[in-house]
Amino acid sequence: MELTQDDVIRLLKLIDESPMGRVRLQVGDLTLEVDKGTSAGSAPAIFARAPQPAAAPAEAARIESAVEPIAAPAQPAATDGTLLTIKAPLLGIFYRRSQPGSPPYVEEGSLVEEDTTIALIEVMKLFNPVKAGVKGRIFKICVENNALVEYEQVLFLVKPE
Amino acid sequence: MTKISRVLVANRGEIAVRVIRACQALGLESVVAVSTADRDSLAAKLADRTVCIGPARALDSYLNVGAIITAALGTGSDAIHPGYGFLAEQPRLAKACHENNVVFIGPRAELIEKMGNKIVARQIAAKLGVPVVPGSEKVTSVQDAIETSLTIGFPLLLKAAAGGGGRGMRIVNHVSELAAAFEGASGEARTAFGDDTIYVERYIRNARHIEVQIIADHFGNVVHLGERDCSLQRRYQKIVEESPAPHLESLREQIRQAATKLARETGYQNAGTIEFIVDQDANRFYFLEMNTRIQVEHPVTEMITGIDIVREQILIAENRPLSLSEHDVHIEGHAIECRINAEAPEHGFRPSPGLIRHWRAPEGHGVRVDTHCYSGYTVPPYYDSLIAKVITHASTRAGAIRKMVGALACFGVDGIATTIPFLRFLINQPAFQNGKTHVRWIEDLIGSNPNWVHQLEKLEGDGHGQR
Fold first, then answer.
1. ipTM of the complex as predicted
2. DSSP letters along B12-34, please?
3. Domain B134-202, architecture per CATH
4. Which of B40, B73, B74 sits opposite A19 (nearest CB)?
């Protein structure tokens, strides 16, 4: 069984909405570890180890989870890819650009700093800029333009640099 | 007619579940707006869709008009039901609905504003010839209050014009207490409601709280669904309600008619409740205030009339004429409701949030439980402590009481403290069983009786399924 990037995004969303603080998912050669982090300052960390190029036989997915959140966020391992999530700070309509016709704030692969505006969220005609909050490269844009995003919904995955 | 297909439920707890059930009965889709603390709520499990509108803090979620409206628009909901509390009586939600073409399941914003201001509501009632509690317009200073007290006399009540739930209220027994009470009441009102306007009313000692349930469509049709007696209160929070009100013979019809007249003449729409104070010594009734929303205690009215009030709210909001007239309303038997809170009565009613390890609610003919709780549910600490309402209905008041005694005795809640033992204690009192109570009765009972907690423990020992 192979998981696509979209599968991973969907899994992240499910994990995000669950009460679990730490999840380790193994599907064939893919291991996904999510640690939500506890305090406001700590960023949630996700480890994804990609499957080997050769197709592996289908295996049942195993999910190990701990209900207690871990006190300290896990440290990124040197060889693993680490992705951070950027979540919606409020509910509203998600816009990728400052106005129709302008180029989008970011694309997948764009470099961002803590202060970079990466999207807008509109609530009743009030447009709220969303800042990256982290230095890195946009790995995945998880929401479509004009979509309703909920509070704390995952908007972007960022590879920190 | 404006067909509603999908309703955004902008509330939480048991009333969110209640509204979702009414939607299901009408074949409507429901979307529930939740804070992060309510993602696992029963309402979230029952609704067709859940939208997280903000963090636990009510100001950022359940009181967040922008988030609620945007959630409705973004989910294609045609209507919003505000429940009770939170934004239900804030004209700004009703206004924002109107501006964004979303149906507000409740009265027009202008009615909410008018009737929500207690001074304005009193003036309207007085103009219509409905008796009001002897009192004043707003008093802007201690001096003003002192002058007013010369006409009204003591004891008197200082009340917040923008208020409710007992906040911004002070009983004053003597003119020497007036200055401090005035500062206290206006300060509290400013903090709680953003408006420190105070008015004065005569304080009626031997009073009962009698309220009338109204439903009205957008075409001027108004029907009352009988009255409720909500005299059993503690710190201005209702604990036990019943319908019809016992021992109200000579005033019952007058009160019902006064309420209907007020609703009709103000062009009231949707569901509402008009509250009165009955002075038992003088055998007189007075208009107190109007609540422009569905109330917590609406189930007692539903049990005696067989009418689904939330369903009627939705149909009215669709611009349909009322499907019933006063002739069609038949009041049968007697219903009693006990509100159960996550509080420890033996520790000053201290809030008791936390994990409910086991939940076993009573059932049976004429027994109804409205709740959002279940085994394994964690009651969050951020909101009010109401966890369930037990309602019993029988053909007589005595029968309804017997059913309530049985229902409370087998209501099992493990893991948190509840007020179930306290309710059993209250229902057991002869004064309650004889229907001879008043709005200060509970406070007098526990105030004068230092051993009341021990009496709770004795009752608990006889009960089944407690802890």
1. 0.86
2. -HHHHHHHHHHHHHTT-EEEEEE
3. 2-Layer Sandwich (3.30)
4. B40
